[in-house]
């Protein structure tokens, strides 16, 4: 149970460092033997926490995560990308083989094809097994967890993307 709370603390500290109105929305949903922990930071910086024995809301400055703030075995997002949302579902229940999912939504300053090709090369070097899947990629991480990258055009020269791990 302490592990999900430990994850909330860095999120709150990150939020305290930001500035501006529009930030990255981050959610954490984890459960274990002691109960469920739900924490979120809205794009406007509103932090909400609901855990066994504690709940509340705090207004913090908004944060904006970018390419360097996300790492998959040394692979960051495509250069110049910004993260619009991050959702972390974690579980700590005995007898379950499910260790959660991570979903990251982002915007990149390149076409879906350029972003896909860049990720394919970088993730291949990081020992991910990847294959083309429409305009994105799918496969497994170096730990054998399912991985999917979905990309869609945003105008003529940008892409909206989603990474789903787990």
Describe the protein's topology.
Layout: H1 2-17, E1 25-32, E2 35-41, E3 46-51, E4 54-59, E5 82-92, E6 101-108, H2 112-125, E7 129-133, E8 136-140, E9 146-153, E10 159-165
Parallel strand pairs: 1-5
Antiparallel strand pairs: 1-2, 2-3, 3-4, 5-6, 6-10, 7-8, 8-9, 9-10
Structure description:
The chain is of the alpha+beta class. The chain folds into 2 domains: about 1-65, no CATH class; about 65-165. The protein contains 2 helices and 10 strands; from the N terminus they run αββββββαββββ. It has helices spanning about 1-15, 110-125; strands at about 25-30, 35-40, 45-50, 55-60, 80-90, 100-110, 130-135, 135-140, 145-155, 160-165. It has a 10-stranded mixed β-sheet, covered by helices on one side.
The strand count comes to: 10
Task: Provide the number of structural domains.
Answer: 2
Write the element-wise H/E pattern from the N-terminal end onward: HEEEEEEHEEEE
What profile does the largest beta sheet have? 10 strands, mixed
Low-confidence stretches: 1-20
Helix fraction by DSSP (H/I, runs of at least 4): 10-25%
Strand content: 35-45%
Mean pLDDT: 80
Number of helices: 2
Q: Measured on Cα atoms, how large is the radius of gyration?
A: 17 Å
What global shape is seen? globular
